[in-house]
Amino acid sequence: MATVAPVVSDLVDFLNASPTAFHAVDEAKRRLKAAGFVQLSEREEWAGLEPGRKYYFTRNHSTIVAFAIGAKYVAGNGFHIIGAHTDSPCLKLKPVSKVTKGGYLEVGVQTYGGGLWYTWFDRDLTVAGRVIIREKRDGGVSYTHKLVRVQEPILRIPTLAIHLDRTISSEGLKVNNQNHLVPVLATSIKNEMQKIVGENGPKESSENKNMKHHPLLLQLIAKEANCEPDEICDFELQLCDTQPSAVAGAMKEFIFSGRLDNLCMSFCSLKALIDSASAEHSLDNESGVRMVALFDHEEVGSDSAQGAGSPAMLDALSRITGSFNSSNSKLLEKAIQRSFLVSADMAHALHPNYMDKHEENHQPKLHGGLVIKHNANQRYATNAVTAFIFREIAERHQLPIQDFVVRNDMACGSTIGPILASGVGIRTVDIGAPQLSMHSIREMCAVDDISHSYEHFKAYFEEFTEVDSKVKVDY
């Protein structure tokens, strides 16, 4: 039986540390700091950037951009970017989540993105996200954001017994997202008879002050945040599965996990950037800027202050360029035309039980390497030039590569690729590792494709400048 590659074990650790976009960014920050990347603030000037140095910044703590500046970089040179996203379809708590009915305490949730919501039934669920906490300091009050994650399974969305839904076998499960996707937290009678009391337990004052959420839920969150329930001002929490990610299958060839779309590509691109810039002299001959941009809100269209539809990437390119030469306003336009974006988002692998869902000549396989996505109607931003450049890097390293187009009689999804290509004006190729069960609470991909993706991304960072110098198009 094959041994698990270190990059695969590292991915599993990343997935298990990242139940939400906030946690994914926090884990990315930890890894970047350990690799010598310096944190920047978008609220401050970036006047001190230096060639050969490495930096990162976050926006809303759910989007992160990291970059390594080549030692030979001058203003106007290109950016070599991999873009991915930190969010995944999930169930998020409503602003007023307190639901009591039928003798149960339930938690009101709203759907985020296009999830396969039936897969959330009968799973051992918990909550994670961020809370805003009021703290007293030096005679005053300040407000901080903290990440929380309740480790124990505290919620469940139970299915209805087949005896009470005799048509389910013939007509299938029909989920009403408003009525049926309400997780159970506790029974009312047990909550009343055995309220948790103690140092961090619910108090009458907190119950009276906050009627929007069950005091029991607030007590659990406050315990994780190391505060009192009435110190919680607000939160952004979501449901998540408590089952950890794992290398699985009879041959240990798969990864079973939630959020592979798109934390898998986020991890592979981040690790590739870190490793391509960490060895001594690794940036000595680089004339461009190597960058990874991991955005929030892709699953709902990217239209937010921290999504790919925001100015976040363009702002970064502008500020980096301007920090090296603020006198020439045209250098940014020059830099963009020398730049390249790999839009990395997971791809649809061929499903053995639904063979007819794939176009005959475009059937990506697990273990088959990264998939180049094509769409004549620009749902993907790939063209012949950008596909060739990405494929050429694969061929130099004997890495497998695949192609995908959706059937003409099926709708095509999209990615951050067209958004950034049209918004920034940057050459773009859309790619992704193949996976099954996309948008399920529990997805799967192949371990070989993790290694392929990481190696491909690392080679892209290290060799793009040289490959691109040989491609002649607009001359």
UniProtKB/TrEMBL annotation:
List cofactor names only: Zn(2+)
Which molecular function term from Gene Ontology is one that the record holds?
aminopeptidase activity
InterPro entries on file: Peptidase_M18 (IPR001948), Peptidase_M18_dom2 (IPR023358)
List this protein's GO terms for biological process.
Answer: proteolysis
Could you confirm whether the keyword Zinc appears in this record? Answer: yes
Cell cycle recorded as keyword: no
**Keywords recorded for this protein, A-Z:** Aminopeptidase, Hydrolase, Metal-binding, Metalloprotease, Protease, Zinc
Cellular component GO terms held in the UniProt record: cytoplasm
| Recorded superkingdom | Eukaryota
> What is stated as this protein's family in its record?
Belongs to the peptidase M18 family.
- Listed name of the protein: Aspartyl aminopeptidase
